[in-house]
Structures are given as C-alpha cells and as structure tokens.
Specification:
Belongs to the claudin family. By secondary structure, the chain is α+β, with helices and mostly antiparallel strands. It has five helices and five strands. Helix 1 runs antiparallel to helix 4 and helix 3 runs antiparallel to helix 5.
C-alpha cells in the first residue's frame, strides 16, 4: 500500500456523478416526453400526447397503444425553446464526453499520481456541459404552458425534462468536484 497511489475522493465523486449525469442527460435528450398533454377535447379520457424535442407520440393508456412520429400540426418544433434545446442538448452531450475523456486522463487511477491540472480542466468542461443542458431544460420549463398545445389539454412536465434536469445537476456537481483538483495545483506552487 502506497499512500500516494490513492485517487482523491473528490475525483472519484466527480467521475461517478458525471457518468450518471451523462446517462440521464442522454436519456432525457432522446426521450419523446418533455411535456405531456392529456384531457384534450374531442379525445378519449385516457389519450395522452407526449412532446419531446425530436418526436411527438400519442398513447391510449388503457390499451397501451403507442404511436410516435406524429405530425407537428401546431408548429411545436418551430418554437424557440424547442429549437434551442435541439441545439444545446447534443452540444452538452458532446462536451460531456470530451470532458470525461480529459477527466480519465487527469484522474489516472492506474498511475501513481493523478494530473490535478488536467482533472481541474475536465471539471470546468463538465461544469460547462451541465450548464449547457440546464439552460434549455429551464427555458423549456418556463415556457411549458405557452408552447402550442391542443385545445383544452392539461399540461404537465414529462420524464424527459425531469431526467435532463437531474443529469444537468449531476454534471454540474461532478464538474465542481473535479474542479477542486485546482486546489492541489495551487498547493504545489
């Protein structure tokens, strides 16, 4: 046992949180349910419309008949919060992947000493990627009730939006944990 071979706890926490954040953000990005519209006029009581940033699905809940790829009759995909999410969510995912590669090189669990500066830079990248996905999720939530919907429908946030929020928060926390590595760089100087 060599004391210098231990990976700092903050680095391990940061890596775990960011990997979990990536998984949740990816799921939220591709999920067809950022918003659910139910109880629409001229529709059965158990009919639900799910709107994501890439797809629109309908489901008859009593029979579990689900159809995706529905026509965008209300110009939902043309709305600015949806278009912003379509751009920023994939950008966030790409930056998260890049940040995790840099973090893996910085943490270097297989080496004697981690590269604190590299881990800190990765932390900042992951913090930024979390903010990049938090912005569209927040904006979409703010505009949830103003985006076009069928007449008389009840609107609620969908699981895709919730997962995007959670993933963003985990990436921000993980990025902050990795950014603590800068403290070690300052101590060395």
């Amino acid at each position: 046992y060599l004391p210098s071979m231990r990976t700092p706890t903050a680095m391990i926490v940061g890596m775990v949180l960011c990997h979990c954040g990536l998984l949740l953000t990816f799921t939220g990005t591709v999920a067809p349910s950022w918003r659910q519209v139910s109880h629409m006029s001229n529709q059965p009581i158990d009919f639900v419309l799910e709107q994501g940033i890439w797809d629109i699905c309908t489901e008859q809940q009593s029979t579990h008949d689900r159809l995706c790829g529905q026509a965008d009759e209300l110009a939902y995909f043309e709305q600015v919060p949806v278009r912003v999410a379509q751009g920023m969510m994939p950008t966030s995912l790409a930056l998260t992947l890049l940040g995790l590669v840099v973090a893996a090189l910085g943490v270097r669990c297989w080496q004697e000493e981690p590269r604190h500066l590299l881990a800190g830079v990765a932390g900042l990248m992951l913090l930024l990627s979390g903010l990049l996905s938090l912005v569209p999720a927040s904006w979409y939530t703010h505009e949830l009730w103003t985006l076009p919907a069928a007449a008389g429908g009840t609107l609620v946030a969908g699981y895709g939006l919730v997962l995007s929020y959670l993933g963003s928060c985990l990436e921000i926390l993980g990025g902050l944990a990795l950014a603590l590595s800068f403290h070690h760089c300052c101590k060395e100087r």
